[in-house]
Design brief:
Layout: H1 2-40, H2 54-82, E1 85-88, E2 95-98
Antiparallel strand pairs: 1-2
Helix pairs in contact: 1-2
């Protein structure tokens, strides 16, 4: 009976990671594109541009930064495991530790 609980716990963690990395990063990228358009003053296609909103531009670049950091951490995880290292998140910043 305990094995079923362990299996469901592992499946839940895989589901969360898959949603965060598989669908979460593209959603953040799309929101970054939309906020850049909003920051430039665009409301709909074909309409004359409205007022420039610096907050939208800053939010768009912040979302792009989150996406780039996620991609770089993913690549670091893949490359580090190939070289026999482990990516550790026990500190404020990620570190590489020998296996």
């Amino acid at each position: 009976m305990h094995n079923l609980g362990f299996a469901l716990d592992g499946a839940w963690q895989v589901l969360i990671a898959g949603l965060a990395l598989g669908a979460g990063l593209p959603v953040l990228f799309a929101l970054g594109i939309r906020s850049l358009a909003w920051g430039a003053g665009a409301t709909t296609v074909g309409e004359t541009p409205g007022p420039v909103r610096p907050l939208g531009t800053a939010l768009g670049y912040a979302l792009f930064a989150v996406v780039v950091i996620g991609v770089l951490l993913g690549l670091t995880f893949i490359v580090a495991s190939g070289f026999g290292y482990k990516l550790e998140f026990s500190h404020i910043y990620p570190t590489l530790i020998a296996k």
